[in-house]
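DEPOSITED CHAIN:
***
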Amino acid sequence: MSAHTSQIIADRFPKFGTNKAREILRLAFEISKRENLPADEIIASIKEQNYEKVKDLLLMRRYPGTFAKTPRNSFYLPKLEFNENFKADVSESKFKPKNIFYTKEASLSHLFQKIKNLFPSAVYTEIESLKSFLKNRTFSVKDYNSRTENLFLIEEKYDFFKKCPCTSNAVNCGYSIMNLGMGCPYECSYCFLQGYQNVPGIILPVNIDDYLQEEKIVSNVKGFFNYKRIGSGEFTDSLVFDDITGFSVPVIDFFKNRSDIFFEFKTKSVNINNLLNAGGTKNIVAAWSVNSLKMQKENEFKTPGIKQRLDAAKKCAQAGFSTAFHFDPVIPYAGWKEGYKETVDMIFDTIPDNSIKWISLGALRMPARLKPVIENRFPENRILDGELLLGKDYKLRYDADMRAEIYGFINKAVQSKKSKAVVYLCMEEKRQWLMIND
């Protein structure tokens, strides 16, 4: 969006103050992107001079499906700011950190020695602690973009397991998280980490054995499942670094004889050699995040394709593991129903149904602060063109009707396969659950 457009707005609406002009510029930008029209042309088409009327005309055009039924404060219009230095590099690259920071305790670990053998040309620097390293340092999107250049090896002392944080008023599925690190080399346009992570690198704990103790496992409600569920994959992909860390081996060994707990490796990778070598058991779940082929190609950069993920899932099922799939985030677009049904068909054409333990559904949602980050890192993105509305929790999401349509459609597609897998919604309120079960 050029300074020229800002000047046109100033000339066209001379009585608008700075903030009002910024909102009009934001709306003109988003409409221009959605409709593939010059922003100047959109501004020129407005005959009104009253601010409220001008804003409503633009809001109605920007949010045609939800404008009439949505409070005005639900339309999130942050200042439009772009920095070319913040654009993500989505070209394929192998993880090869240039700098490795480690604590004294970490240097005594087996993983540290393995890292030194794998990356002998990296610069190794001892630090007192991660907290001391970060003190008085600023962090920007540019630092996030270069995160794979830096690897931090630490001893984790607190966050071994924790209950999955659940959105207020959402149905809790009783999931708990095992924290196997922070940071991911994949570049998914919607990833919450790009607006959450404040460490300029990948963090890996070296003391996995400290995690695997009975007293460390959090008390876990079963939710609507008839068993406890623990998994990894919230702050990093569960398996993308597994060829380096080998974390899956002791995890499988620890949980495989605890039949009252299902442990889930949630991933987009096909890094499954350690799993296959360890041998499967039904309470160890190899789970993949999936999407439509179009959305995967346009938004999940550097990741294996959907077919590759399903081929890996098939190998895990054949090795004796349970499997699971997560349609999250589901992103509606022209033809989305056909696209997501295709993925459902691919899953059930590839994976033995008796291996699939659960399938989760979650529509695209994000903290509001993530919107400008995505715009800067992925300027060609189309996911922000949807009618994402600001909720009371200051998150952007589709309105209830759109979400109900998404969940109902995919749930119906799954149920048509006569699957015994549990289908559940991720971080959704009770009425959405009731609607898909009508």
